[in-house]
Design brief:
With 138 residues, the protein is mainly β. It contains 1 helix and 7 strands. The strands form 2 sheets. It has a 4-stranded antiparallel sheet with strand order 1-2-7-6, with no helix packed on it. A 3-stranded antiparallel sheet has the order 3-4-5, with no helix packed on it. β3 and β4 form a beta hairpin.
């Protein structure tokens, strides 16, 4: 009996985009890679942002949408008298938007940035926590 495989071109789209972004680099708007997971009553987001500083990053939460924006400032050092042979380092920016799996308490969110990795700790709201219902015997 022959095995039949169903080809779904949409399933390839994320990996094709990531491969193209890796090849083209930030010049063509490559998005930083991220992980999102939950552990206990907290949603965690990790985002790679090498080359950015804390001042370059902006984080906002509106409802169940997390938005992380990064924008570097153009270097203002004196460029007069220079003759460039390669100029690849320039201002760069990105915006990543995530739909959170749960409503979170944005006022209790914690953001840490170390070694080019942004780590967000987002506690779930009371609405998102599991509820125990006591059963009464009759």
């Amino acid at each position: 009996m022959a095995n039949i495989r169903v080809f779904n071109p949409w399933s390839m789209l994320p990996s094709v985009w990531e491969d193209a972004s890796d090849l083209m680099g930030a010049t063509f708007g490559a998005l930083p890679k991220a992980n999102m997971y939950e552990k206990d009553d907290v949603v965690h987001v990790e985002l790679e942002a090498p080359g950015y500083t804390v001042e370059d990053l902006d984080i906002s939460i509106t409802g169940d949408v997390l938005k992380v924006t990064g924008k570097t400032k153009e270097q203002t050092e004196d460029k007069q008298g220079r003759r460039y042979y390669v100029t690849e380092i320039s201002e760069k920016s990105f915006t990543r938007t995530f739909t959170l799996p749960y409503e979170v308490l944005s006022e209790k969110a914690v953001a840490e940035f170390q070694n080019g990795v942004l780590k967000l700790t987002l506690p779930k709201s009371e609405k998102a926590l599991p509820k125990t219902i006591k059963i009464e015997a009759k």
